[in-house]
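Subject: for your reference before the review

Hello V.,

The reviewers asked for a structural picture of the protein, and I figured it would be easier to keep everything in one thread rather than splitting it across files. Below is the amino acid sequence we used in the manuscript, unchanged from the supplementary table.
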Amino acid sequence: MKPSRREFLVLTLSGLGAAMLGACGDDGNTVQDNTPNNDTPFMPDIPDEQMPDARLDIAQVAQAWFEGADAAAIVAVGNVYVQRFAPDEDAVADDLASVVAIFAELEDLTEALEALDAAVITDFEAVEIAAVSGWQLARTEARMCSLFAQAVG
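And here is what came back from the structure prediction:
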């Protein structure tokens, strides 16, 4: 049976952990190749009051989405995505809110994951793609990586 896009992404990210982390600085908190002075933080600390609301626990949804994947690789992808596409705290908060809106009103984890799967398909159909470290990810996938990074960080 052919793996779903999410399963493929989980398997791929699991194998990319070392490669992605190789782009990090010595302290694991900076991007060497995309940062003006090599000192820009990967993930701004979003205050709890700026995190979007959802009926389900956001961290639980993010962890279920990437179940079985290498957490360090997911965080690295999320951090690189944020570095390139959401340059400040407000942009990160808006970006996270846009992905949480997909499942914010749902109360069932399975339904939330299905809604995210459907959003990934819609992103590819609409060519809403983010190029992150040579990978072409649906914006929803990339945003879920940054949501995971924020939730577990």
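For the response letter, the relevant points are probably these. The longest helix spans residues 5-21. Confidence is low (pLDDT under 50) at residues 14-42.

Happy to draft the paragraph if you're swamped.

O.
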